[in-house]
Amino acid sequence: MSNFFDKKKVLVCGMARSGQSAARLLRKLGADVTAQDLKEDVDWTFPPEAENIHLYLGKNPDAVVEMFDMLVVSPGIPFNMPFIEKARSLNIPVWGELELAYSCCKCPIVAITGTNGKTTVTTLVGEILRKKNPQTLVAGNIGIPFTDRVTELTPESLAVLEVSSFQLETAHNFKPAVAAVLNLTPDHLNRHKTMEHYRALKERVFINQQPGDAAVLNYDDPCCRLMKPPGRAIFFSEKERLEEGVFLDGNFIRARLDGIDERIIEISETRVLTENALAAAAIALLSGASVTDVSETLKNFKGVEHRIEYVGEYNGVAYYNDSKATNADAAIKGLSAMRRPVVLIGGGYDKQVTFDGWVGMFKGRVKFLVVMGQTAGQIIETCRAFSFEDFDRVNSLRDAVTLAAAHAKPGDCVLLSPACASWDMFDNFEQRGQLFKQFAREINAQ
């Protein structure tokens, strides 16, 4: 692929981690690269002058788009921005970092998307597949840009990718050998506007597949069940005993797939949410893993940071960090996993979704709710509509943890599960989760 990019003038828009990674890869491939960002004070992980990368900082690229042969845009940039629409009207290709990395990839790809569970399932599948193939890379939306590592891969490698709807928006030829859509519930509608558009973006994960490829879908999710991949559709289910697929058989995960018909593991032996365990088992088996590898990894997997992460017990109160619950459906799963009375911390960036399903669970589960962020008012209104009055509003996460600790009694738990993104108050959900853990320790040490 190096000849394709050689001497091409490429504008890389958005200099967060994935944008910087894309710019570096393009330089390695011989492209003439210009890095653009609205900020002038970019936190570079590399000196751009050493890479011979031109800079166009502190302004929109509207006036210079026609000077380039190609645009590579960050996932965080909405696809309806005027400069992107201008580029498309001029037939200038607009790619994302995922498509760029795919164009250079020499090995099979496993791609995992969905509204919730992506990070856990991607991490888990990667651990299972490494038992057979140590050259398995886990990357993508999980925190390691695919462009960072793609040049290290050989035909014998395997890439396991977490893929977001934002990344799929700029995918064109991307074709994984095994794709998965874990679930589909309202999310990112401030950007995608309708569920129909959101679903169509998720379906792009398998749109280029061929009959020899496989798509793993959630049978229990009506949107996923109705999807029609061009390759082979394999389902997983908690509720249905499938003729083919991976499903819950009493208290056991069972696989009927490619000559396998056996119980893999008892649910009580794994800490993973059942839906995620079923999906990971199906994806891994289709990617060449053995039943033994799946079973052993599910038994030993300790979970993912910021997703129903046990922080510790202080003064008889257990603290859980579920900062990765950036939408209501994820927060429902986090709340459902608790086995103690809950003092809940929620609220954050407004993605223009409703909270009815989440708040509707509170009675009998949530002792007290602490709300913060842009959505605090909307969540309070929803609580009142459901006659839930045990709440208070705060202006900072430290205040939220302090108030939650005051309301929690021995035998309770404090759960950070915001049901919202973090961008109104934090750089990302990781920062929010790290601070929660820090404040839980500090406040209880006083």
Essential attributes:
alpha/beta, Rossmann fold, UDP-N-acetylmuramoyl-L-alanine:D-glutamate ligase, Protein-Tyrosine Phosphatase, Chain A, 3 domains, nine-stranded mixed β-sheet, 17 helices, 20 strands, 33% helix, globular
Question: What do you see in this structure?
Answer:
The protein has 446 residues and is an alpha/beta fold. Helices cover 33% and strands 22% of the residues. The chain has 3 domains: 7-92, Rossmann fold (3-Layer(aba) Sandwich); 99-300, Mur-like, catalytic domain (UDP-N-acetylmuramoyl-L-alanine:D-glutamate ligase, 3-Layer(aba) Sandwich); 309-445, Protein-Tyrosine Phosphatase, Chain A, CATH 3.90.190.20. The strands form 3 sheets. A 9-stranded mixed beta sheet has the order 7-8-6-9-10-11-12-13-14. It has a 6-stranded mixed beta sheet with strand order 15-16-20-17-18-19, with helices on both faces. Strand 18 (366-371), helix 15 and strand 19 form a beta-alpha-beta unit. Helix 16 packs across helix 17.
Taking the sheet with the most strands, its summary is: 9 strands, mixed
The gross shape turns out to be globular
Instruction: State the fourth-level CATH superfamily of the largest domain.
Output: Mur-like, catalytic domain
Number of helices: 17
Proper CATH architecture of the largest domain: 3-Layer(aba) Sandwich
Helix content: 25-40%
- Indicate the mean pLDDT: 92
CATH top level assignment of the largest domain: Alpha Beta
Contiguous low-pLDDT stretches (5 residues minimum) are none
- The domain tally reads 3
Terminal CA distance: 59 Å
Please report the total strand number as a whole number. 20
- Beta-strand content: 15-25%
Quickly give the structural class. Answer: alpha/beta
| Widest beta sheet: strand line-up | 7-8-6-9-10-11-12-13-14
